[in-house]
Amino acid sequence: MGMDPNKCCVSWEDLVLKHAPFQEKEIHTGYVSMIFKSSDTWSAGVFFDTEQQETFRFVAYFKVYLDDEVVFTGVWKDNTYRGETYRQFHAYSIKKDLNLSEEGLYRFLKNNSDLKGIGEKTAKQIANKFWKNFNDVIVNNPEKISNSVKIRKDALDNLVRIWKENITLNQLTVELSNLEIPYNLISKIIKDYNGSAYAVISKNPYSLIRYINGYSFTIADKVAEKLNFDKKSSLRLQAAIEYILLSDVQDGFESNDCWIEINELIHKMVDLLQLSYDFIANFISNDIDEKNIKLFEDEGILKVSYHFTFYAEEYSINFLNGIKDKNNISDPETIFETYYESLSILNEKQKLAVKNALNHNFSIITGKAGTGKTFVIKNLIHIFRQIDLDFALVAPTGKAAKRIEESVGHEAATIHRLLKYNSIEYQYNEHEKITGYDVFIVDEFSMVNNDLAYRLFCALPENAKVIIVGDHNQLPPIGPGLLFTELLHDSMIKWPIVELDKIVRQAGNLKKNSTNILDSYLELEQKDDWVPMIHSDFYSEQNIISLVKSIFENSEETVGFNYEDIQVIAPKKHGISAVHNLNIEIQKTIQQKLYGVIVEEVANIERPKFYLHDKVIQTSNDYDIDVMNGTLGKIVYLDNSSGITKIKFDGDIFVEYEKNDERLDNVSLAYALTIHKVQGSEFPCIVILMHKSQKFMIDKNLLYTAVTRASKKALIVSDPSTINFCLKKNKVINKKTNFKYIVKNLNKK
Q1: 206: which residues sit within 8 A by CB, 6+ positions away?
Q2: SS3 assignment, position 425
Q3: Which residues, 6 or more positions from 231, have their beta carbon under 8 angstroms from its beta carbon?
Q4: Of 227, 323, 467, 504, which is most buried, counting CB atoms within 10 Å of its CB?
Q5: Which pLDDT belongs to residue 21?
Q6: Highest mean pLDDT (candidates 104-108, 190-194, 350-354, 503-507)
Q7: Residue 547: closest CA among 508, 577, 503, 510
Q8: DSSP letters spanning 426-440
């Protein structure tokens, strides 16, 4: 991955000024009166300037909230939207306005969702009596307020705390802005480091790279330059190495390399640091801090790996190799014979998978869709219950856990939930092992990357029985490593593996036609559960959009399912026939057709507004409300006047969100999702869209993964050229892993 040393070094101020026709910096004090869009990195809306008594449109390169009392600094710029040209204020920095008018203080007290126990009446009384010297009173003599206004002590204490936080925020904002750190990052840094933020950065501006998302090496480098750090300092070179290694691990869906060759690393550092090859090579040879870096030679190649990346992979392989020949069942052959009659409905490979699991503390069950992997799990669970073995059934995602739970009739959990992860730490880990289970069955293991595999295996007791189940024909895991695939293809160690290769009768045409895709064949005859729609009309993305809208206008008639049972999936997030735009178009169709609601127009880059009945998805784990990434939900209550939104998530979890609730940033429309997002999930009816504009992303494994998400019906919408290209293209995975090196050295021990 090449790196441009100048990329991201420009401050938001430089970026805005560069493109602004009116370049005189202005400061505006007032409040946000309307929001068009607000995310962690970008906001747009209407601002009311309380000094000039005028309203104008603004764009801000950070998050703002409705009714925020702030001071904007920025420039004016012409903007054109749908043929209309107008001036728009581009704000590149912000601070809280602490010199509030009576009305401004009233709005602050009334609208701030963090100020509990201060109602409209109390807010009006405080504003009326103290607005002229509120800052002095709240900081130095807050009891004056409680002596004059009826307010609970805890509410007043909370008000003092929040106001002082705003003072600190302003001071830190100025200090960090002087270092040319973008404001959206300033708010993250202050949130994580509080009052020590400036001191931490001053000591080592590179130390935040690993912990603040978006705080790249190039931003840290700009900060270091402001702080007069030497360009040849060991801190800078060490940070560059770690940054490159972690960037290679985290870059994209399928690269995620676990190591880099030493010469490639040095060349990347030359580009990034603008230092000589010899100087960098000498640093690596003599001065590198190997605490977080591992250097090793493999078949004449000197490789460099981030230490945890290497250690996580090594630990998992060592653990599995250490338990595969052990057994926590004393007489497995007798048990197998005892239950052999009940296993008569299984085919020979399925029986062998059961026997393998009974005979070894580690075993692998793999196979294509429809080969009966879940049925084997169900029979194993029956035996474990009969012989009093306690077992845990887990999967990498919430949807995958729910699917296997419904299929086998036993409670399942995500791996994170099993490990009691709370978004900060894992309660179960290398030092605190999980207790209460004899067997751990992990479904959809092909989705598990090296980091998550390590987190799981390091927390398991040494006498645990581990059964991993998956389909290696699906997409590789997001993140470093290919543990499942490499275990299946390893020739150096005899792992206990059974590959199921027979499509069972119960699977039906849907599964049979799905697996044919892996042989580069697509059945074109339409059946009740299989509807390929391959036509030249779909060279046009607008025709694809029109088809999708017609499906949702009368879904019961067109596809035989309620719209809530239909999931549209596509390879890409952005584009005309991609997920973001599809969600906008489907939302318009459903809201107008079913509920008579006209959806507001949104620009393609904007986040769509939520409406009552909308289908949504949680996009990150939220342990406070017990809703995991990938959990689907529905808007069941929406009050535009109060800003209250209520969502019912799968599992009958109801969550209420207040106005400006940041948690809603982690909720998105879910009428359409990416194929990566639905891996591990299953839906009654799937509509798969593949357009020629997405050719660079597609292959037959992606299509196979997509169609196998359908439990009852699959519609495949594409043009002949694109679908033929897809069927001919094999999945190519170029991930660099340490698996072979680690296994080879295991054999030497």
Answers
A1: 217, 220, 221, 224, 235, 236, 238, 239, 243
A2: coil
A3: 225, 273, 274, 275
A4: 467
A5: 44
A6: 350-354
A7: 577
A8: BSSSSSS---S-SEE
Provide DSSP, 254-306: TT--S-EEHHHHHHHHHHHH---HHHHHHHHHHT--TTSEEEEEETTEEEEEE
| Sequence-ordered alpha helix ranges (H) in 458-610 | 483-489, 508-516, 541-553, 555-558, 579-595
Q: From 660, 627, 633, select the one nearest 646 (Cα to Cα).
A: 633
**Dihedrals φ, ψ of 472, to 5°?**
-70, -5
- pLDDT, one tens digit per residue, over 223-245 is 999 999 999 999 999 999 999 98
Strand pairing of 301-306 and 362-367? unpaired
Structure tokens at 311: 């250690």
pLDDT tier, 81 (very low <50, low <70, confident <90, very high otherwise): low
Q: Percent of the chain beyond pLDDT 90?
A: 57
617 vs 643: CA distance, rounded Å: 19
Q: What residues form DSSP beta bridges with 421?
A: 426
- The Cβ-side half-sphere exposure at 645, using a 13 Å CA radius, reads 23
Phi-psi region of 481 (alpha: psi -120 to 50; beta: other; left: phi over 0): left
DSSP E strand stretches across 179-268: 260-261
Amino acid at 145: I
Name the residue type at position 490.
D
The answer to whether 355 and 380 are in contact (CB under 8 A) is no
Residue with tokens 């004393």, as numbered in its chain: 330
Name the one residue in this structure whose structure tokens are 């008018």.
Answer: 101
Count of C-beta atoms within a 10 Å radius of residue 524 = 12
Rounded to the nearest 10 degrees, what angle do helices 234-250 and 262-273 cross at? Answer: 120
Handedness of CA 455, 456, 459, 463 (dihedral sign): negative
